[in-house]
Design a protein that fits this description.
alpha/beta; 12 helices; 16% strand; globular
Length: 320
C-alpha cells in the first residue's frame, strides 16, 4: 500500500457517481495515498449539481481500485444514519476492499440531516449521539450479537455475519470540543484545515499516535484569475466563517449565506491557480501542524489537468 501522505477528495456534491469512480481510479494511478469520499444528501449549491449515495460509491471503489485507502469523509450517525446501518455498510466495504476502509464519522450538517423530517439537534446533543453510536458500531463490527438501549439509539439482537473487528473509525473535528471527542472515541482524526489547536487537543484527549488527516480545497488552473472565479462560483462556502454552514437547511439557504462572499474572500481562503509553491506551502503548513496526511479537493471539472499537475509538481516531494 502506498505511503504518500497526500490524498484526494471525491466530492459527491460536484460529480455524478460514474465520474467519482473514474476519478478514484485515476487518483490511485497517479499516486495519491488515500481517498476521502463525501457523504451528502444535497450539494451545498445548486450549481454543484450532484449528491450520489456514498455507500454504492465506496463499494464500487473497493472493487475498482487495488491499494489506495478509502475513507468516508464523513458519515453522520445522528439522524439519517442508524448505527446498525453504518456498521453493516462499513463492514461490507471493508470486506470488498480487503481491509482498506476507514469509517469516517462526524456530527453533520442540517443540509443533509433534515430530510428525515426529524429535528436537527444542538451540537452538544449531536456529539452525545455520535459518541453513543460509535460504541454500538464497534460492538457490531466485532461480530457479537448486540442489544443496546442507549439514550438515543436502540439496537436489538443485531449481529453482523461478515464482521470487521479491526476496521478503524476516524472522527471529524473543527474545534476543541469535537477534537476532544475524536481523541477519546476515535481511532483517528479528520480535520478541515491545518489547525494546530485541533491536533493538540486531539492528542491530549487520547489521540496521541493515532492517524491525523485533514482536507483542503484547491482550484488548480493554468490561469490564476479564472481559477479564482471558478472556485468562487462553485465553492464560496470555503470563505464562510467558522461552522456557520452547519445550520443551513437547503442549497438556497447556503447560496443566500454566500451572497456577500467575494472572489477575493475565496482566493484568500484556498490556493488557486498554477503556482506549485503555494500548494507546497499549504501542504507543509498542515504537516507542521501535526497532520500525517492532507487530502486535496480540486474544485471544478478539470480533474485530469489537476492530476497531471499533482504528478508532475507535487508528488515528487511527498512520495516514499
Amino acid at each position: 500500500m502506498t505511503t504518500c501522505p497526500i490524498g484526494y477528495v471525491l466530492a459527491g456534491e460536484e460529480h455524478d457517481a460514474a465520474a467519482l469512480i473514474r476519478h478514484g481510479i485515476a487518483a490511485e494511478k497517479v499516486g495519491f495515498g488515500f481517498l476521502f469520499v463525501s457523504d451528502h444528501f444535497h450539494p451545498w449549491l445548486h450549481e454543484q449539481g450532484h449528491s450520489p449515495a456514498v455507500w454504492p460509491i465506496l463499494g464500487a471503489l473497493a472493487q475498482a481500485t487495488e491499494e489506495i485507502e478509502l475513507v468516508s469523509a464523513v458519515c453522520c450517525p445522528v439522524v439519517r444514519w442508524h448505527p446498525t446501518a453504518l456498521a453493516q455498510s462499513a463492514a461490507t466495504v471493508s470486506s470488498l476492499s480487503g481491509g482498506r476502509f476507514t469509517l469516517g464519522l462526524g456530527t453533520g450538517e442540517l443540509l443533509n440531516e433534515h430530510v428525515t423530517g426529524l429535528e436537527f439537534p444542538s451540537y452538544v446533543e449531536r456529539a452525545e449521539r455520535l459518541a453513543e453510536a460509535v460504541g454500538q458500531i464497534r460492538a457490531l463490527l466485532s461480530g457479537e450479537e448486540v442489544t443496546s438501549r442507549g439514550h438515543y439509539f436502540t439496537t436489538h439482537r443485531a449481529q453482523l455475519f461478515d464482521p470487521a473487528p479491526d476496521l478503524p473509525i476516524a472522527i471529524a473535528a473543527s474545534g476543541p470540543s469535537s477534537a476532544r471527542l475524536a481523541g477519546s472515541h476515535g481511532d483517528g482524526l479528520i480535520g478541515l484545515a491545518g489547525d494546530t489547536e485541533v491536533v493538540e487537543t486531539f492528542e491530549k484527549s487520547g489521540g496521541r499516535g493515532k492517524p491525523k488527516r485533514t482536507q483542503l480545497s484547491v482550484c488548480w488552473g493554468a490561469d490564476q484569475l479564472e481559477a479564482e472565479r471558478l472556485a468562487h462560483r462553485l465553492w464560496p462556502v470555503v470563505a464562510l466563517e467558522g461552522t456557520r454552514f452547519a445550520n443551513l437547511r437547503t442549497p438556497a439557504e447556503v447560496e443566500a449565506a454566500c451572497s456577500e462572499v467575494t472572489i477575493e474572500h475565496v482566493a484568500a481562503a484556498i490556493v488557486c491557480g498554477p503556482d506549485p509553491e503555494r500548494y507546497h506551502e499549504m501542504i507543509q503548513n498542515c504537516l507542521e501542524a501535526g497532520y500525517d496526511g492532507v487530502a486535496l479537493h480540486q474544485v471544478g471539472s478539470d480533474q485530469s489537468g489537476f492530476f497531471e499537475f499533482y504528478q508532475r509538481e507535487l508528488l515528487p516531494r511527498y512520495s516514499t
